[in-house]
Amino acid sequence: MISNIGIPGLILVLVIALIIFGPSKLPEIGRAFGRTLTEFKSAAKDLVSDVGKNEEKKPVLSALKKEK
């Protein structure tokens, strides 16, 4: 649904946000949103790297040969 907004819809959303929050609050909201995205990205990278490390640490099972 969001992919169907287009340029006119995006401009409309920005104008409505400007009217609601005002020109002084809008940069603060943008910075907070950017920080949130940055934290989310770093957390996702940490999770992916942790999963990769855990898979590498799994012991390899080998068949034991009994010698008589």
Cα radius of gyration in angstroms: 25 Å
Poorly predicted ranges (pLDDT <50, ≥5 residues)? none
Percentage of residues assigned to helices: over 70%
The major β-sheet equals:
none
Cα shape: elongated
- What is the overall pLDDT average? 80
Query: SSE string, helix = H, strand = E?
Result: H
| Count of helix runs | 1
End-to-end separation in angstroms reads 69 Å
| Percentage of β-strand residues | under 5%
Report on the structure:
The protein is built from one helix and no strands. The protein is mainly α. The N and C termini lie far apart (69 Å).
Structure summarized in a few sentences:
The chain is mainly alpha-helical. The chain has one helix spanning 6-57.
Describe how the helices and strands are arranged.
Blueprint: H1 6-57
Keywords:
68 residues; mainly alpha; 1 helix; 0% strand
